[in-house]
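Agenda item 2: flavin-adenine dinucleotide complex prediction
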Amino acid sequence: MSEAPTRNDRLPPPVIVWLRRDLRIDDNPALVAAAESGGPVIPVYIHDEDTAGRWAVGGAGRWWLGRSLAALAGVLAERGASLVLRRGVAAAVIADLVAETGARAVVWNRCHEPFAVARDAAIAEALAARGIAVRAFDAALLHDPGRVATRSGGPFQSFAQFWRECQSLPPPGPPLAAPARFTGPERLVLSEELVALGLAPSRPDWAEGLASAWSPGSVSAVARLEEFIDRRLAAYHLTRNDPDRGGTSRLSPHLGVGEISPRQVVHAIHTRGEGLPAEPFLRELYWREFSYHLLHHRPDMPDVPLRPEFADFPWAEDSEESESLARWTAGRTGYPIVDAGMRALWHTGWMHNRARLIVASFLVKDLLLPWQLGEAWFWESLVDADLAVNAVNWQWVAGCGVDAAPYFRIFNPVLQGEKFDPRGRYVRRWLPELEHMPDMFIHRPWEAPPAVLAKAGVVLDRDYPRPIVDHALARRRALSAYQQALRQTPPHPTLSPEEGERAF
Ligand code: FAD
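Presented output:
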């Protein structure tokens, strides 16, 4: 008499889905391929701090990641799959999992960070040597960053050209539907508890502000996208620059860990947002694509200026211990719009793009500190910290990147505040000590007459600091440093202090 078939005799072998920056079930080609194999699906997240080296996820990003993994586990469980969490060096963990589960295939969606590209290639090779099938899919970007190329096959040096080229390519297809149901493995695959990954801050727990500002997870990401399209997209081009207007999508942290794909975003913009003026928003999304395009061609971009003449730039100092860096990070520079941005970052893990531009310009040009110090602080503090996008933007502000702002355009933090926060709402929200300053002095409290300060209840240097630098002097110092580095004479000798403002 033959034995009754076991479940394993009928099912194809298990497939491991290695999830990384694709923490969603919609539009997830690796998950779809695993489900379509007909075999048990084992979704795995590996917390590997070693392989990423100095670009391991920062503090705010870890907080987000923990919440996002919890949300993903819930979504997967509803469809019959159990998220496996492991810690350790990814190559070793994957090898162990293959041995434990009898999986014959490992699938993933590509990551584009240089360390991840190298890691994945090595793991794919090791698996292939053991006869394990590996399939990698594209899901993080709209276009493969290496395949968009100039006629000579090189990278684009300007966003405008990159954007034009992308518009001429076939549009990204519609997003993939999530698999309706997953088959689980016959035997339980052991998982770490989420808390064991140590992602949430404990002593002290500084994440209260993050928790009240954000709701990580793919369900929230889709809800945020829909709300943005319904309520904000129509006026995006008018409101996107005002830090207090809430005119942007705030999708960046969701996109960062892949709770939503750019393809889902574009598809929703064209369907749900049909007829609305979407180009200004799509251009921003394509800045994200452009950032990865540049990182693909210049993997050293997070550390090294793209323009070689900036290699020996005469920075004021480059110490992480410097007093000016400490005041910048703490939001105590004495320039209210800069300090508001930095405190918003500290409390919520996010900063409006206009504020990012202003604080970055202040660090690099007014304080003359290396852009890499600001990049590192953002990396640690942003819930949307992204290796490619962060590096491209810091280099852009510093003037050493591709398509960068001309060096002689130096933001005046007072004029920027008055232009983009004319009623001082953003400043008052984040600097309660200036709540009662009249609009006229909200961006320049040190110029307020004593009676005005007294009425507003502000004692300078007790409640709020005087400016750390005199902007006019700092501007001259920056111009001369840039001219020295670039060995240039000023292109516009008569340029007034405000002139650089106008182009922005
Ligand atoms: P929206 O205006 O709604 O834009 C939609 C999406 O387009 C964003 O979610 C983002 O994915 C992309 N996008 C928008 N602006 C840019 C830009 N300038 N460059 C590339 N992509 C963009 N963004 C990050 O996601 N991670 C970072 O680490 C990061 N670091 C930055 C550092 C500096 C110095 C500066 C000036 C900007 C940085 N940005 C970064 C870009 C930008 O500030 C944020 O993407 C944006 O503020 C996110 O808000 P949002 O989702 O509401 O954007």
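Discussion summary: The CA atoms of residues 46 and 86 lie 5 Å apart.
Owner for follow-up: CH.
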